[in-house]
Automatic annotation (TrEMBL):
Signal peptide boundaries: none
Lineage: Bacteria, Pseudomonadati, Pseudomonadota, Gammaproteobacteria, Oceanospirillales
Pfam families assigned: DUF1272 (PF06906)
Domain RING-type: 8-47
Highest taxon of the lineage: Bacteria
InterPro entries for the chain: DUF1272, Znf_RING, Znf_RING/FYVE/PHD
Name under which the protein is recorded: DUF1272 domain-containing protein
Length: 102
């Protein structure tokens, strides 16, 4: 089950569970769409994968026990350990390789 992390790991923007600009990689690294486009260039600085829009977990359980009320979003903030220089060098090296081929 997705953790639904509460923030962009780069710029620290708050990304609530219903944020439409939250992006994740296959390891659930979470960044805002602005950072994915302008800083990361669709390259996850942690794994090298690409990003997809993070799904929005339902607020209300339309099926019993299946909603944010039963499976709340994480409150633990995550911060990238890489500097802008490291991120730039990493993304420059592989940004032109399609995510499916990385």
């Amino acid at each position: 089950m997705l953790a639904i992390k509460p923030n962009c790991e780069y710029c620290q923007k708050t990304l609530p569970a219903d944020a439409q600009d939250a992006m994740i990689c296959s390891y659930e690294c979470t960044f805002c769409s602005d950072c994915v486009k302008s800083v990361l260039r669709n390259v996850c600085p942690n794994c090298g994968g690409g990003f997809s829009a993070r799904p929005i977990r339902p607020k209300h359980d339309r099926r019993q026990g299946v909603s944010l009320a039963y499976h709340p979003a994480s409150t633990t903030e995550v911060h990238t350990k890489y500097s802008l220089e490291e991120i730039t060098a990493f993304s420059e090296a592989i940004k032109n390789i399609a995510p499916k081929d990385r």
